[in-house]
């Protein structure tokens, strides 16, 4: 069952729902009583520059009327690419295929841009790294409050390849940003980070699955969340160490702040280990702002709202600091600061 199948067939029974274990906190079947028609074709030439326009060598747009995007990066090449997923009133089912040749380097700056309409979007993304390739994927998801978005990325690594990911989101009516890694071991490394900043009734689901298939692989994951009002944050992280994947080093952490009585965080970190001689750990905490630190800052003249914003920005900042590209870090910090000031 999947949103992609439901959009293709019009069959609502194909939507995942709360009876599906991996979707129980992001119920689409109970939410969507009808599926919208396909969105009108979008004139992408009229789009304003995206937030990463100044960092990218080229821009690719996934939108209605332009539902397929592909990129092949030759061995040894280096490129910065902005990928914009643009949602407007109606349904969009699109696919992105990216291959990064041996020893090549790709900086992928990905944005989800939705208006205020009740759209439904599904993006299927395939990323294949050849031996020794390096990819950094930075995702800023600014969906509309009435939108429904599901992004499913499949990342396949090769020996010695390196993949870094940071997903930052302000949620939507219903949103799931999922990444699945086929990890070969063989000195390949994965960093899979994320942060959600949710207010009002917004919902965000950050789901990852890292499947270690061979020996000597590394996965590091850090996710942080902040929810207020009636928002709901979901974190699901699963690391699988298959039989024979010895000397795997895999670590996962999820930490969230709940800033109101009606907000909710659901977290499920999982380690499934079928090999010996591994170093694996996970941690999960959910709490409130440090009242002592807040009191200390207010005693020194900071208004409460400013003090709270600074504490939250510092809390989430650990995720941003792990972004490799300095210019992308600056964009991410500005994006977070804008949302803490009340932007969408």
Automatic annotation (TrEMBL):
What SUPFAM superfamilies does this protein map onto? Stabilizer of iron transporter SufD
> Which InterPro entries does the protein's record reference?
Fe-S_cluster_assembly_SufBD, SUF_FeS_clus_asmbl_SufBD_core, SUF_FeS_clus_asmbl_SufBD_sf, SUF_FeS_clus_asmbl_SufD
Superkingdom: Bacteria
SUF system FeS cluster assembly SufBD core domain residues: 89-315
Q: What PANTHER family does the annotation carry?
A: PROTEIN ABCI7, CHLOROPLASTIC (PTHR43575)
Designated name of the protein: Fe-S cluster assembly protein SufD
Which organism's genome codes for this protein?
Phenylobacterium conjunctum
Taxonomic lineage is: Bacteria, Pseudomonadati, Pseudomonadota, Alphaproteobacteria, Caulobacterales
């Amino acid at each position: 069952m999947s949103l992609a199948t439901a959009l293709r067939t019009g069959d609502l029974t194909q939507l995942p729902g709360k009876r599906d274990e991996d979707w129980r906190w992001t119920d689409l079947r109970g939410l969507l009583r009808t599926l919208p028609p396909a969105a009108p074709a979008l004139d992408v030439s009229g789009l304003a520059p995206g937030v990463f326009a100044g960092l990218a060598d080229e821009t690719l747009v996934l939108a209605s009327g332009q539902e397929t995007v592909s990129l092949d990066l030759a061995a040894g090449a280096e490129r910065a690419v902005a990928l914009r997923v643009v949602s407007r009133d109606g349904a969009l089912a699109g696919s992105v295929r990216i291959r990064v040749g041996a020893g090549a380097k790709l900086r992928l700056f990905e944005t989800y841009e939705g208006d205020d309409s009740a759209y439904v979007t599904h993006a299927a993304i395939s990323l294949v790294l050849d031996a020794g390739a390096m990819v950094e994927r930075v995702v800023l998801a600014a969906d509309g409050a009435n939108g429904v978005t599901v992004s499913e990325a499949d990342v396949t690594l090769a020996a010695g390849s390196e993949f870094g990911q940071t997903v930052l989101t302000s949620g939507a009516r219903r949103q799931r940003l999922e990444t699945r890694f086929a990890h070969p071991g063989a000195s390949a490394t994965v960093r899979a980070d994320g942060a959600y900043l949710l207010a009002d009734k917004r919902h965000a689901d950050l789901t990852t699955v890292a499947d270690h298939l061979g020996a000597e692989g590394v996965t590091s994951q850090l996710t942080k969340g902040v929810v207020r009002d009636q928002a709901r944050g979901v974190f699901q992280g699963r690391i699988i160490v298959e039989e024979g994947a010895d000397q795997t080093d895999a670590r996962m952490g999820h930490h969230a702040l709940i800033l109101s009585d009606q907000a909710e965080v659901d977290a499920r970190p999982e380690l499934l280990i079928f090999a010996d001689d591994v170093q694996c750990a996970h941690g999960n905490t959910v709490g409130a702002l440090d009242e002592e630190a807040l009191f200390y800052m207010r005693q020194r003249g900071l208004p409460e709202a400013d003090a709270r914003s600074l504490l939250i920005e510092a809390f989430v900042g650990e995720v941003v600091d792990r972004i490799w590209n300095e210019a992308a870090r600056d964009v991410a910090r500005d994006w977070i600061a804008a949302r803490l000031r009340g932007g969408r």
